[in-house]
Amino acid sequence: MSKHRMTQLRALEGRRVSLALADGSRIDDGQLVSAGRTQLRTIWVFVNGTDTFVPLTDVVDVWETATLQSEAA
Question: Which CATH number characterizes residue 50's domain?
Answer without folding.
Answer: 2.30.30.100
